[in-house]
Design goal:
Protein name: MFS transporter
Radius of gyration: 20 Å
Subcellular location: Membrane
Membrane topology: Multi-pass membrane protein
Largest sheet: none
Keywords: Membrane, Transmembrane, Transmembrane helix
Number of helices: 16
Structural class: mainly alpha
Organism: Marinifilum caeruleilacunae
Helix content: over 70%
Low-confidence stretches: none
Length: about 400
């Protein structure tokens, strides 16, 4: 059967499902705690994961541009499977660290490459204007997968908290054949000779020469860091409200269903509010989600979490689209990796500190502090975007 660029879209869906059907997410913090890790240990571990991603984020994005997005996705998928195999046989911080490093390297080869593959596949078909809609669908499918996994993971945890990790290895394997069957839209294009100097030139262009690209990347990075940060607070937050593991799994599922449904409407919201209006809504919505959930440390706070995830469903595809609109194809994966690089750097700096703050003070005060930080950083980014747009 002849492969087409249109055929890349369902394969990218499969890769997203394999990556986001996370049986482990509803119980991962509880699993860490069962194995003797404190909240500071948990966020330190995730901070180290972020550093691993950071080290390879931009070079892997660059390799995807010059070596091929397909090859990058294949390697990332293999490492993603291997990481969960290591997790399945680990019982302490050191073993978890090894698994996180493998997963971090694998994630760095997928992040940026998948979105670049989607955009350039649409570009080949002269359907690039559909990117926001397609990216929203990919995100929606991923969140639906994570929502279903929330129920399954919570149920499997009744057997043991380790069971979801074992089965996650098989789920992650699905991405490997899907990546192998992709058709690279840039396979016949002339490849730029790989080199560290060229990587630096793209980074310089993204973060210095192009003011428009710089501030769009900064806003997307701040919001990306915020959504990543809150994800690691939800389980201890709900546990602090004396909720059972099964209840936490259900809430996790509903939160991800919220993102999935809202993502399908993201292009309509952006079309109605416009770029600046949407950006302001995202910054205020995300930061207030932190502050209000910390302020209302009760079932009202749980309601605030749903509002946060509503805004998240709009933010992720829309802010990626803003970057893709102003980025050339031959550097697209690298530029998207610059965005992911900044997200991970921010989280590596903020995450462990907020974990320490939670252990020494309270989760409520840590959430309000985080919301204030993201409000300031996001607000500054929107101000400069408005300036360069004029």
């Amino acid at each position: 059967m002849t492969r087409t660029y249109a055929g890349n879209i369902p394969k990218l869906y499969a890769i997203k499902i394999a990556k986001w059907f996370m049986l482990t997410m509803p119980i991962i913090v509880l699993f860490y705690q069962e194995n003797g890790l404190s909240m500071q240990d948990v966020l330190t571990l995730k901070g180290i994961y972020s550093v691993a991603v950071v080290i390879l984020e931009i070079p892997s994005g660059y390799l995807a541009d010059v070596w091929g997005r397909k090859k990058s996705l294949i390697l990332g998928s293999i490492l993603g499977c291997l990481g969960f195999v290591v997790y399945s046989f680990s019982y302490g911080f050191t073993g978890f660290l090894a698994a996180e490093l493998i997963l971090g390297i694998g994630s760095s080869f997928i992040s940026g490459s998948d979105s670049a593959m989607l955009y350039d596949s649409l570009l080949k078909m002269k359907r690039e204007k559909e990117y926001l809609k397609q990216e929203s669908r990919v995100m929606s499918i991923g969140n639906f997968a994570e929502a279903i996994a929330g129920i399954a993971g919570g149920s499997l945890a009744l057997i043991s908290l380790r069971t979801p990790f074992i089965l996650q290895s098989f789920i992650a394997f699905i991405a490997i054949p899907a990546a192998i069957l992709l058709l690279d839209p840039n396979q016949d294009s002339k490849k730029t000779k790989a080199g560290f100097t060229h990587i630096l030139s793209i980074v310089k262009f993204s973060l210095w020469d192009s003011a428009k690209l710089r501030w769009n990347i900064m806003l997307s990075s701040v919001i990306g860091c915020a959504t990543l940060t809150l994800a690691w607070f939800i389980q201890p937050y709900l546990k602090d409200l004396n909720m059972e593991v099964s209840t936490i799994g259900v809430i996790w599922t509903l939160l991800n269903l919220t993102v999935g449904f809202v993502a399908l409407l993201a292009h309509r919201v952006e079309g109605y509010l416009g770029k600046i209006g949407t950006s302001v809504f995202i910054v205020i919505g995300i930061s207030s989600g932190f502050i209000l959930s910390g302020w209302f440390h009760s079932l009202i706070g749980v309601g605030v979490l749903f509002f946060f995830y509503f805004v998240r469903g709009i933010a992720t595809p829309v802010l990626k689209d803003y970057i893709n609109r102003i980025t050339e194809s031959d550097m697209r994966a690298t530029v998207l990796s610059v965005r992911n690089f900044i997200i991970r750097i921010c989280f590596a700096a903020i995450g462990p500190f907020l974990g320490w703050y939670t252990d020494h003070y309270s989760i409520s005060s840590a959430l309000m502090l985080a919301g204030t930080i993201f409000l300031i950083l996001g607000g500054v980014s929107v101000i400069f975007i408005r300036k360069v747009e004029k």
